[in-house]
Write a structure and sequence with these properties.
By secondary structure, the chain is α/β, with parallel strands linked by helices. It has one domain: 3-Layer(aba) Sandwich (Rossmann fold), CATH 3.40.50. Strands 3-2-1-4-5-6-7 form a 7-stranded parallel beta sheet, sandwiched between helices. Strand 2, helix 3 and strand 3 form a beta-alpha-beta unit. Helix 2 crosses helix 8 and helix 4 packs parallel to helix 5. The longest helix is centred in the middle third of the chain and has 27 residues. The radius of gyration is 17 Å and the shape is globular. The chain binds NADPH dihydro-nicotinamide-adenine-dinucleotide phosphate. NADPH dihydro-nicotinamide-adenine-dinucleotide phosphate binds next to helix 2 and helix 7.
Length: about 250
């Protein structure tokens, strides 16, 4: 068992914290957002599918969590202007941001580089790299207003060691690691913002099932099992930890 999964969070760990989770409509992001709300956070739920987002919203309220907010945004067409509009809305609604979990991503095709479709390559890079960049740059002023802010990029093992047929997805995750390191270095001595990446490892979600259609889904841990690692990174116990590429398992 990895030490991150052994982390035991106090019940009020995230009280009064405002945390934006991208890709909160499904899979790992959904489990993280629901978990953050259970530990006291007010969560901003980003995704594309408003029906799925509404279901997460309803579930958090039914479980007694603070009222979340919903932020539907398609990342394939996200521009600097749309990202700024989203940040303005966060500012008007909450006035600051304490946590930003970059989790939304698309898999693209499993195919050799030689035959990788250029338009799909662009979509994967746009959703997995450009959109987190655009959101991060425009949300930084709000993160600076927190006295203890945490930015987490969700990575992958193929973002640390390239692997055949993982194409744009692998390259996008390498780029996320580079963005994490660069940003962490810029902010380390000039802000209260820590920046890390987390590789969740194989997890039973729609993305994993699509990448490994021949695998029994239940052999992989549930998204909910990752929660201790996300709580650690979003709460005060990870203060001072920055620029790290972390693994859950
Ligand atoms: P899922 O496919 O279950 O969920 C993906 C989420 O991203 C959904 O909320 C989806 O929104 C959102 N999303 C996808 N495309 C877009 C888009 N174009 N615009 C906006 N939002 C989008 O994936 P996982 O939960 O498995 O993955 C979460 C993270 O974990 C990803 O970064 C992934 O790379 C990483 N990861 C996952 C592993 C695994 O085994 N599952 C292993 C290693 C890393 P909507 O539902 O509204 O479309």
């Amino acid at each position: 068992m990895n030490a991150l999964l052994d982390y035991q969070a106090p019940a009020d760990l995230l009280k009064d914290r405002i945390i934006l989770v991208t890709g909160a409509s499904d899979g790992i992001g959904r489990a993280a957002a629901e978990g953050f709300a259970r530990y006291g956070a007010t969560v901003i739920l980003h995704g594309r599918d408003t029906n799925k987002l509404d279901a997460v919203y309803d579930g958090i309220l039914a479980a007694g969590g603070a009222e979340p907010a919903v932020l539907p945004l398609e990342f394939k067409t996200l521009t600097a202007e749309l990202a700024k509009e989203a940040a303005d809305w966060v500012e008007q609604t909450f006035g600051k941001l304490d946590g930003l979990l970059h989790n939304a991503a698309m898999l693209g095709d499993r195919s050799p580089i030689e035959s990788y479709k250029p338009h799909l390559w662009n979509d994967v890079m746009q959703v997995n790299v450009n959109a987190p960049f655009l959101l991060t740059r425009t949300l930084l002023p709000l993160l600076r207003l927190s006295d203890d802010a945490s930015v987490v990029f969700t990575s992958s093992s193929v973002g640390r060691q390239g692997r055949a047929y993982w194409g744009a997805y692998a390259v996008s995750k390498f780029a996320i690691e580079g963005l994490m390191q660069t940003l962490a270095d810029e902010l380390e001595n000039t802000s209260h913002i820590r920046v890390n990446s987390l590789n969740p490892g194989a997890t039973n979600t729609a993305m994993r099932r699509s990448a490994y259609p021949g695998e029994k889904p239940e052999v992989n841990p549930s998204p909910e099992s990752l929660l201790p690692a996300f709580l650690y990174l979003m709460g005060k116990d990870s203060k001072g930890v920055t620029g790290k590429a972390l693994d859950v398992r």
